């Protein structure tokens, strides 16, 4: 009985709204990026200021050490390494001595970000 009534009920339900064109989501994304850029510039000044204050410097160094320990523990876990290899995102050195794909990708991203974060000489 359910299989006979279900098609009729689905026809009587109101139509779902179709998503708008993709361009409608670009405007909020652009606004978000425009707000994020000044924050990124502010971040480098905050880091420099934190290094000048002894108590803040100590807290920041403790936090970075904790993050390093957590990252090292994650990278050293065999299960994480196996899953990363299966996904094609290996970050460990392969048998041939090559650096993993994920590590090389991360290096490229860091190098490109270094170029964006450095201020031109004329400013």
Descriptors:
mainly alpha, extended
How would you portray this structure in words?
This protein has about 120 residues and is mainly α. About 75% of the residues lie in helices and about 0% in strands. It contains five helices and no strands. It is extended and about 75 Å long. The N and C termini lie far apart (about 75 Å). The model has no long low-confidence stretch (mean pLDDT about 80).
Write the layout of secondary structure elements.
Blueprint (H helix, E strand, L loop, with lengths): L1 H11 L10 H30 L1 H23 L1 H9 L14 H17 L6
In short:
The protein has 123 residues and is an all-alpha fold. It has helices at 2-12, 23-52, 54-76, 78-86, 101-117.
Radius of gyration computed on alpha carbons = 25 Å
Main sheet summary: none
β-strand number: 0
Please indicate the percent range of residues in DSSP E strands (runs of 2 or more): under 5%
* SS field, number of helical segments: 5
Low-confidence stretches: none
Portion in helices = over 70%
**Average of the residue pLDDT scores:** 80
Q: Using the alpha-carbon principal axes, give the shape.
A: extended
Order of helix and strand elements from N to C terminus: HHHHH
Structural class: mainly alpha
Euclidean distance between termini CA atoms: 76 Å
């Amino acid at each position: 009985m359910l299989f006979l009534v279900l098609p009729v009920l689905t026809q009587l339900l109101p139509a779902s709204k179709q998503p708008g064109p993709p361009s409608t989501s670009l405007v909020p994304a652009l606004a978000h990026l425009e707000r994020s850029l000044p924050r990124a510039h502010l971040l480098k000044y905050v880091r420099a200021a934190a290094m000048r204050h002894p108590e803040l410097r100590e807290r920041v160094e403790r936090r970075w050490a904790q993050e390093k320990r957590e990252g090292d523990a994650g990278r050293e876990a065999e299960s994480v390494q196996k899953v990363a290899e299966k996904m094609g995102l290996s970050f460990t050195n392969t048998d041939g001595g090559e650096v993993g794909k994920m590590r090389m990708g991360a290096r490229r991203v860091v190098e490109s970000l270094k170029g964006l974060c450095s201020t031109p000489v004329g400013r």
